[in-house]
Amino acid sequence: MIKKIEIGNRKLSIEDVNKISLGAQVALSDDPKFRAKIQSSRAFLDSMLASGSKIYGVTTGFGDSCTVDIDKDLLGQLPINITRYHRCGLGDVFNQAETRAIQAVRLASLVTGASAVTEELLESLICQMNTGVYPRIPKEGSVGASGDLTPLAYLASSLIGEGESYFNGELRPTGEIYESEGLKPYVLKPKEGLALMNGTAVMTALACLAFDKAERMAKICCRLTAMNVMAMRGNPAHYDEDLFLAKHHPGQLVAAKIVAENLSLYKPNEESLRLQDRYSLRCAPHVIGVLMDMLPTFRQMIEVEINSANDNPLVVAEKEKILHGGNFYGGHIAFVMDSMKTLVANIADLMDRQLALLVDPKFNNGLPANLSGANGRARSVNHGFKAVQIAASSWTAEALKQCMPASVFSRSTECHNQDKVSMGTIAARDCMRVLELTDQVVAANTLAACQALYLRDLSQDLLREQWGPEVENFYNIIREGSPAVEEDRALEMDLRGVMGRFNDGGLK
Fold first, then answer.
1. Is residue 19 within 8 Å of 4, Cβ to Cβ?
2. Is residue 455 in a domain?
3. Fewest Cβ atoms nearer than 10 Å: which of 83, 129, 360, 372?
4. Containing H/E element for 15?
């Protein structure tokens, strides 16, 4: 059981968000200083309203309509309307883990105390999360400034009992769920609709999930590189620590160390050893190491965004200020996601190239063509991993195609009020797609590497004791769901099973 995560009195990490995405319960901190800050922020906004002050999105219309003043008796309708007219999203909908991450990141921003929301709104959002109500949120429709308005409109709408939500795996009208479960729809106060919607929660939530996947993938690909070096009887000297100390990028050093550790018991035949292996083996730490080097920078940017006040306007009660600005601009996350997808796609390309060598008898140093396990006359009608290599090439090409940076495609929108936007959410969705495609390539490489080691073991060309305990354990986990390929069979479910192990943490 995942421990309950307290929100409000400390900064949330990427890991916190990801635990919540997987079902961790949430509690609002009882810390008096935190509660006082939330209360004073709201009280100051209410006092400014009472004095007749003009406040964007509270006493005025939204966006370019900021010049339109709202009559006092309509102030309560305004936050409801913004949740309604922004519900125009299209495309696929976010899954449960993505939606819970979005809820968590929006909550993390609101508890900073600069959004002038009430404690009741925070508790209502937490109640929704802990009860397992997940708003139906379409993926498409955000330009990433003024934040993720369209997707977050669905979150806000579900909080007030409108739209549709998932509960116990079933999509139903939100109001119907609330009634059946004895929950009360929240009644938005002035500014609270804008506070829920005007921020970077969607792109940042996806960045948290992407970070975790990319970090795990980098380590797995180091192990796969070692397995492929052994399978192709490659040269372990390419991963000598002194080679990488001469260049000393920290992530590259880490990648090389992981490969070397997995090769520590491997003893190649010196007579058949190539002086230099091909680049996809020899330069693997140089490719994977770039992602490893950038992960700390990505973490810093993502975690700042998680714990930031990123709506507009912001209320600084202790200084009696209401500030109108652009903290909803998702430029940092856009950069992280555009950068991450490029680095990850490069790893997909690396794994695809290793796989291409592995199946080709011209380059694999004595392994059967296409890694077929068939013997005798059956060899002529069995094709092993031939189609898997073709499919991996397809997935790699699609991943590489996605690497055009989304952040450079800013569009002027909303009567030229939002005339320079981040496209951060598109960048984040692209990155998630690249990660999915790379998962597929890595799964293909995993099955092929295990097949190659199996064939070496079968022929006694590589003694099993040279694999080492980590490779042996990795191999055995794969074999639990995917036996060696002796005769041709459909491998789709084997591939899906490996991907499932990547995503549930069963392979590291």
1. no
2. yes
3. 360
4. helix 14-21
- Same domain, residue pair 276 and 140: no
**Entry pTM:** 0.95
Residue 80: other Cβ atoms inside 10 A:
16
Taking the C-alpha atoms of residue 503 and residue 19, their distance in angstroms, rounded to an integer, is 13
* CATH code (residue 24): 1.10.275.10
Q: Kindly state the average pLDDT of the residues 125-148.
A: 94
Read off the amino acid at residue 254: V
Catalytic residue among 56, 166, 279, 454: 56
Helices 78-85 and 149-159 meet at what angle, rounded to 10?
A: 120
How would residue 111 be classed by pLDDT, with cut points 50, 70 and 90? very high
Residue 437 burial class via C-beta count within 10 angstroms: exposed 0-12, middle 13-18, buried 19 and up:
buried
What pLDDT, on a 0 to 100 scale, did the predictor assign at position 2? 56
Q: Is 56 annotated in the active site?
A: yes
Please give the residue range of the domain that contains residue 189: 5-199
Residue 418 predicted with pLDDT over 80: no
Rounded Cα–Cα distance for residues 167 and 189 (Å) = 26
Residue range 140-167: mean pLDDT, rounded: 94
Residues 289 and 415 in one domain: yes
User: How is 235-254 classified by DSSP, letter by letter?
Assistant: -GGGG-HHHHHTT--HHHHH
Instruction: Confirm if 316 and 114 have CB atoms less than 8 A apart.
Output: yes
Residue showing tokens 């949740």: 83
Average pLDDT for 4-17? 95
Mean pLDDT over each residue of the chain, to the nearest integer: 94
Q: Residue 321: pLDDT above 90? A: yes
